[in-house]
């Protein structure tokens, strides 16, 4: 019982509640960690929600470690819905008031990068993939990949190029990005096209995912039938041309200190137009 | 039994398996919809995974409607982990091979917008919020909000400004964006700063979230103590100044047709530098 909070009322009775902390939006958060039988949990949950309703609480969050999968069903039976899940836990939520639910939504977007790496012979670093939609199509494409949790875009671009082709690069700027919907698992998708400067030139392709890799004359890339068909390929070719002619400015990262927790974040902006000077901020 | 697939082996025995379809990456997807007892499910799941292992399958996905919360525990007991959840379902996953797991990760980013709306008196549309980190701070900030599932960035910006202030706007371009980590529920965050042209000027603030709204001289916004302290406020002020002087170009949306399913997506690029002409694509 040591994990349970006790609320004494009138000095006579007490109601056992689930351990909870208040959030900043008038709700409570329950983080279940120790094992508990599903019937005990259901009883405590019912009493707790009733008490929180009396207190005028709004959203009730329950974070269940995967070891407590036996508590998912009783929570759902009490009216909870899923909010999000990570490999090791499931977050459920219940909105108590009759008013409109203002609970924040789950992470909605997957984020990917594509890397434009041009050498000084007007050649573009391209790969053929072993799986996915371009498998066995013979199409040459720029290295792409998913931005991992907590990974900065510019780091993801450097990492993916290195992993797929062995080429070391220096990130320069975001040239463009695409927002798509109903992609993987019906989630939305943001795909950032990154300009990279090569620091090495000898290709060593990755075996697992990459069928082939090469430096390809830009014209050949642009002339592929698929480049003509798929607008995104066409714009990548256009962006390459514009960059080679020195005509195009994208958004480059500036390191700034986060307002609330002193951690760093990165602001990507058109630093040519804004005239950002290195003494005005933590420059990238 | 009609929902179950049967595999006949040697013409003698058959093994009942869970209903599954193949994915494009050597795995299988099980979508459970009808009710099933947890013990029957556990038995079928064990037999199915065994069969899929024999067939050399890789990832096994199980999508459980929330009405089947009783099946979460047996799946976890068979070694499944959570992949992601939406209000009405939970996706679990199991990687069969001994090789490194190449399953795609969950949506990792929440996406938000902030809207810069300037009138021709050099005044910025600003609000004070009733909740959140700026509650009771007296700080005036630009309207911000979360991009909803399947919502285009430019639509989200127009919607949030209208909801919070009643002002109609026309989206112009993305001026900059910030990537932060370990934000809400430890997820990463992309925050897009949008330039909007006002189409109306009479403010009608929203009651639920907004304490006050006004057109504020840009200098007053920039001179707020918090603007000095928080770099993101400072850069928003700098971007306003640059835009008013006509010196800054961001990224504007072009509608392009998605390569695989003929749906639309939007590519945001520096259309001034790329010289995008309206006959070269589906112009925004």
Helix content of chain A: 10-25%
**In terms of structural class, how would the helical and strand content of chain A be classed?**
alpha+beta
Number of helices of chain A: 7
Order of strands in the sheet with most strands of chain A = 3-4-5-7-6
Spell the H/E element sequence of chain A.
EEEEHEHEEEEEHEEEHHHEEHE
Q: Would you report the number of β strands of chain A? A: 16
Strand content of chain A: 35-45%
Write down the overall geometry of chain A: elongated
Radius of gyration of chain A: 26 Å
Biggest sheet character of chain A:
5 strands, mixed
Mean pLDDT of chain A: 88
Structure description:
2 copies of one chain form a homodimer. The first copy, chain A, has 284 residues and is an alpha+beta fold. Chain A has 7 helices and 16 strands. Chain A has helices at residues 38-54, 72-77, 153-165, 218-223, 225-229, 231-244, 271-274; strands at 5-9, 13-17, 21-22, 28-32, 59-65, 81-86, 89-95, 109-117, 123-129, 144-146, 169-180, 188-198, 210-217, 252-257, 264-269, 282-283. In chain A, the strands form 5 sheets. The first copy, chain A, has a 5-stranded mixed β-sheet. Chain A is elongated, with a radius of gyration of 26 Å. Chain A starts with a strand and ends with a strand. At the A-B interface, helix 2, strand 6, strand 7, strand 8 and strand 11 of A face helix 2, strand 6, strand 7, strand 8 and strand 11 of B. Strand 11 of chain A pairs antiparallel with strand 15 (264-269) of chain B, so a sheet runs across the interface.
């Amino acid at each position: 019982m040591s994990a349970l909070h006790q609320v004494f009322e009138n000095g006579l009775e007490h109601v056992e509640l689930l351990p909870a902390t208040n959030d900043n939006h008038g709700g409570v958060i329950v983080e279940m960690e120790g094992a508990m039988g599903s019937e005990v949990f259901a009883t405590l949950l019912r009493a707790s929600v009733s008490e929180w309703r009396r207190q005028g609480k709004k959203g009730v969050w329950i974070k269940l470690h995967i070891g407590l999968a036996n508590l998912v069903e009783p929570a759902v039976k009490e009216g909870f819905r899923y909010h999000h899940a990570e490999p090791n836990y499931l977050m459920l939520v219940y909105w108590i008031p009759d008013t409109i639910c203002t609970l924040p939504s789950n992470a909605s977007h997957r984020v990917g990068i594509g890397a434009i790496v041009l050498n000084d012979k007007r050649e573009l670093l391209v790969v053929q993939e072993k799986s996915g939609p371009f498998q066995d199509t013979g199409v040459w494409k720029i290295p792409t990949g998913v931005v991992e949790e907590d990974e900065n875009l510019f780091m993801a671009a450097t990492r993916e190029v290195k992993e797929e082709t062995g080429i070391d690069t220096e990130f320069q700027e975001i040239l463009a990005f695409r927002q798509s919907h109903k992609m993987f698992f019906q989630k939305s998708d943001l795909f950032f096209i990154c300009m990279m400067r090569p620091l090495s030139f000898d290709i060593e392709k990755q075996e697992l995912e990459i069928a082939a890799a090469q430096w390809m004359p830009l014209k050949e890339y642009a002339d592929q039938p698929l480049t003509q068909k798929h607008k995104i390929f066409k714009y990548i070719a256009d962006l390459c041309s514009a960059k080679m002619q020195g005509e195009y400015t994208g958004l480059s990262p500036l390191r700034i200190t986060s307002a609330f927790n002193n951690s760093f974040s990165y602001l990507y902006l058109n630093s040519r137009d804004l005239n950002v000077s290195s003494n005005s901020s933590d420059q990238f």
